[in-house]
Each structure stands twice: as structure tokens, then as C-alpha cells.
Design goal:
Structural class: alpha/beta
Helix content: 40-55%
CATH topology of the domain at 222-317: Helicase, Ruva Protein, domain 3
Distance between the termini: 16 Å
CATH class of the domain at 222-317: Mainly Alpha
Order of helices and strands: HHEHEHEEEHHEEEHEHHHEHHEHH
Number of strands: 11
Shape: globular
CATH superfamily of the domain at 222-317: Magnesium chelatase subunit I, C-Terminal domain
Strand order of the largest sheet: 2-5-8-1-9
Number of helices: 14
Largest sheet: 5 strands, parallel
Length: 323
């Protein structure tokens, strides 16, 4: 079943209400908030990389509050163990059995703060749950429920005592973006509220967790023409053939681009994807999946620059293809 124009209008209305609610806390960052909710309703995970004090934690907390779901925050540190995230089985002497105690990963929105400060072993504990929405302990599988989203943060300038996220871990994030500093007008509004504690501002619940699941299912029904799929395929192929790139975008990345494009189209009140949806999302969805050639990296080339050049050089479809 394909989304109808009426359903697209309803989706866009719900999406705008979510964005407007979070904007009351995270000021002047409409684009980033829209990307965050696009990731959520695409059933993906979000990586926020930015300098300290730009509101990464506030954004994650506001999103959790707006969808009336459960949320947990995990501060990643070098001594954090996998069981501290997923949970552990504890022996019950009275009954002679092991009982599983759930970890903080069992929530609708999980904030993984400074994820690159934990050891690779602890980071890998997130691989299964981010991909399959479940945790397997002692051979027993436990579902984390829906909706489920990991919002991870990392600091790009303070690398002492950190572990770079491996490519397999980065590939699990459907999108990576940064918040950046507020503009002049937004900073004035923030300073006017300086008497309030940083995390005292809250967002009133806007949608239920069940409604979020329904919207995510509805987003999957947005129509994608064969010409759009061909366009995505050509973009992904170009990342693999670029001279500056050692490892291009995976199939998971291509699927992520189509999924988020469907959600963005619905958020804009359309029941079909257009090339501009792909262009807007190419950098946040694809750039973090590239592994650059060491010489290009040394010369200052960034994955975002590579993606931007590929988008310019890859012509979008000019007409629909009949399937």
C-alpha cells in the first residue's frame, strides 16, 4: 500500500508539531531538529558530533520527552562494561535460577553520551541492539521494544582517552550531524534565560510512543520511483570510485538514504520522493560511512566535501521511469 496525499498531510502536521515542541528548548536549530526526527521516524539512530556546550544532551532529552516514551542516559567511560549497558543475569539463590536484569538500553530513547570514551568491547555491545532491536544474553534474546533510538554524542576536539568508532559501528547510525553554535538572535534568547538551570526546560509530550511507531510504519509506504533508486545507486557507486575514498558507502548506507528520503518527503507533505530529498540527506546519511585515503585525509579533504562534490557531479533524474 502506498501513502495517500491525505496521509502525507497528516504526517507533515504531526512532524511539525514535534519539531516545534523541541524548538522551544533547542533554539535556532530547526534543520538539526528536523534531521533528528527524520532519523527517529526512519527507525534509525543518530550520531551527534560537536564541541562541548552546544546542546547535544538537551536535544536528545527533548526528543525523548516529546514522544512520551521512556528514556535513559548512559555516560560512556573507559571502565564501562558491556553488561552495564545491556544488562546482566544474576543468580537467584531462592529459586536456583538466573534472572536477567535489564540495562539502560531498554528504553525508547537512549542517550549514549560521549560514546567514543568507552572501550571497543563496550561499544560493540551496541551493535546487535542497534541493528536488530534485541539483546542476547546467555543464549536468551530480549526485545527492547519500539520505538527505539540511540542518540550518541562525541566530542571531535578532545581525543585523549577516546577510542575511534570502528566503521561497523558508524554504519549502524543512519545519520550523523552536528548542532553548531546558535546564531546571534538565538544566543540572545538563551542568555535571557540564564537564570534557569541548563536542563530545567522541558518539552510537553506531543505524541505517544505508539503513534510514533504508526508514523514510522506510514513513512515506509511513501512511493519511490525507479529513477530515484537509480539515482541513489549512482551516488553510492560514485563514492566507491572516488579517488579520495578507500572504502565507499555500503548497501546499508544506500538503504538508509532511501528510508530517510521517504520520511523527509512525508514530513514535507508529499507521498512520493523527489531528487531534492536525496540531495538534502546525502551528506548527513552518507558522509560518515566513507573511509578516506590517508593521503587525502592528510591533505585536509573531508568526507562531507567528497559527498558534496559527488552530488554536484551526479545528474539527478529528469523524468520518471516506468517499472
Amino acid at each position: 500500500m502506498t501513502m495517500t496525499p491525505e496521509q502525507a498531510t497528516q504526517f507533515a502536521d504531526a512532524f511539525e508539531r514535534l519539531v516545534h515542541g523541541v524548538e522551544q528548548v533547542v533554539l535556532g536549530k530547526n534543520h538539526v531538529i528536523r534531521l533528528a526526527f527524520t532519523a527517529l521516524l526512519s527507525e534509525g539512530h543518530l550520531l551527534l558530533e560537536d564541541v562541548p556546550g552546544t546542546g547535544k544532551t538537551s536535544l536528545a532529552r527533548a526528543i525523548a520527552q516529546s514522544v512520551r516514551g521512556t528514556s535513559n542516559r548512559v555516560q560512556f567511560t573507559p571502565d564501562l562494561l558491556p553488561g552495564d549497558i545491556t544488562g546482566v543475569s544474576i543468580y537467584d539463590q531462592r529459586h536456583g535460577t538466573f534472572e536477567f536484569h535489564r540495562g539502560p538500553i531498554f528504553a525508547n530513547i537512549v542517550l549514549a553520551d560521549e560514546i567514543n570514551r568507552a572501550s571497543p568491547k563496550t561499544q560493540s555491545a551496541l551493535l546487535e541492539v542497534m541493528e536488530e532491536g534485541q539483546v542476547t544474553t546467555d543464549g536468551v534474546t530480549h526485545q527492547v521494544g519500539t520505538p527505539f533510538m540511540v542518540i550518541a554524542t562525541q566530542n571531535p576536539i578532545e581525543q585523549a582517552g577516546t577510542y575511534r568508532l570502528p566503521e561497523a559501528q558508524l554504519d549502524r547510525f543512519i545519520m550523523k550531524t552536528s548542532i553548531g553554535y546558535p546564531d546571534h538572535a538565538s544566543l540572545i534568547r538563551i542568555l535571557d534565560g540564564a537564570g534557569q538551570r541548563a536542563h530545567a526546560a522541558t518539552v510537553a509530550p506531543i505524541l505517544s510512543a505508539e503513534t510514533v511507531v504508526e508514523l514510522a510504519a506510514l513513512a515506509r509506504t511513501v512511493f519511490v520511483d525507479a529513477s530515484i533508486s537509480d539515482y541513489v545507486s549512482r551516488l553510492v557507486d560514485a563514492t566507491r570510485n572516488a579517488a579520495e575514498v578507500r572504502l565507499g558507502v555500503s548497501v546499508r548506507g544506500a538503504l538508509g538514504l532511501v528510508r530517510t528520503a521517504k520520511t523527509l518527503a512525508a514530513a514535507n507533505g508529499r507521498h512520493y520522493v523527489i531528487p531534492d530529498d536525496i540531495k538534502v540527506l546525502a551528506e548527513p546519511v552518507l558522509a560518515h560511512r566513507l573511509l578516506l585515503d590517508p593521503e587525502s585525509e592528510f591533505d585536509g579533504v573531508t568526507p562531507s566535501q567528497v559527498i558534496a562534490q559527488i552530488v554536484v557531479e551526479t545528474p539527478p533524474p529528469s523524468e520518471r521511469q516506468h517499472v
